[in-house]
Design goal:
Layout (H helix, E strand, L loop, with lengths): L1 E5 L4 E11 L7 H10 L8 E6 L29 E8 L4 E2 L6 H20 L3 E2 L8 E4 L2 E4 L6 E2 L6 H6 L10 H5 L7 H18 L1
Length: 205
Amino acid sequence: MCPAFDLCNKKVVMFKDSWQVSLPDILLEGKTYKLLKSHKVHNITTCIACYDMPPTIPQQSTQTIKFSSTAWARPNMVITLHILHRLALNIVGQKLTNFESSHQLVQSIHDALIAHKDAYELAKMLHQDLSIGNVVIHEGIGILIDWDLAKLIAIQALDFVVIFVTKGTWQFMSAYLISHSQAIHRVEDNLEFSLYVLLWTALKY
C-alpha cells in the first residue's frame, strides 16, 4: 500500500495491490468497501476504484496450487488459489504510531471500534484483522482500513473459511484464536485485538 496520484481528479490517493484468496462467497476488498458504504458504516475510507486482474494471465494468480498433489509436496498442506486485486482509496492517513498524544491514540482506536461495531451490526461483517497497521489517523479521526480478511457473518461457519484464511496479525490475535487454530472468529476475538493494539502501541511508543 502506498500513496499514488489520481490524474483525473488531481489528488493523492492510497493505492493497494494484494494477493487475495479466491474462493466462492469470499468478497474481494473493493466489494467489501462498497458493501460497508452501502450500510453507512462510520470511520472507514471510500474505495474509489477496484480491479481484479484477469485470472487468465498466469502471472496474476498464484501457481503453487498446481503442485499441491506432487510427490515432493508437503502432505496434508492445504493450498488455495490467490489472485491479484488492486484498489484505490480516497484518503492517505497517518500511521497510528504517529499519534500526537495519548488521547489521540485512544481516540483513534475508539473510532476504529465504532467502524467495527457498525460493520458487525449493520453490514453483518467481521473485520478479523484489527492490528496496528490497519488503523490510520486522518484529520484527527481513526479510520479502520484493510478489510481483505473481512468475512460476512453468514458464511463464518463454512469449513473453507476456517481452513484457508489467515485469521489476523499474530501479535494482536486473541488468546483463544492462537490456542485454537481451527476456531471461527467471534466478535469477542476482534475486540480483544483492539486491547493488544493499544497495549503494544502504548508500551512501544
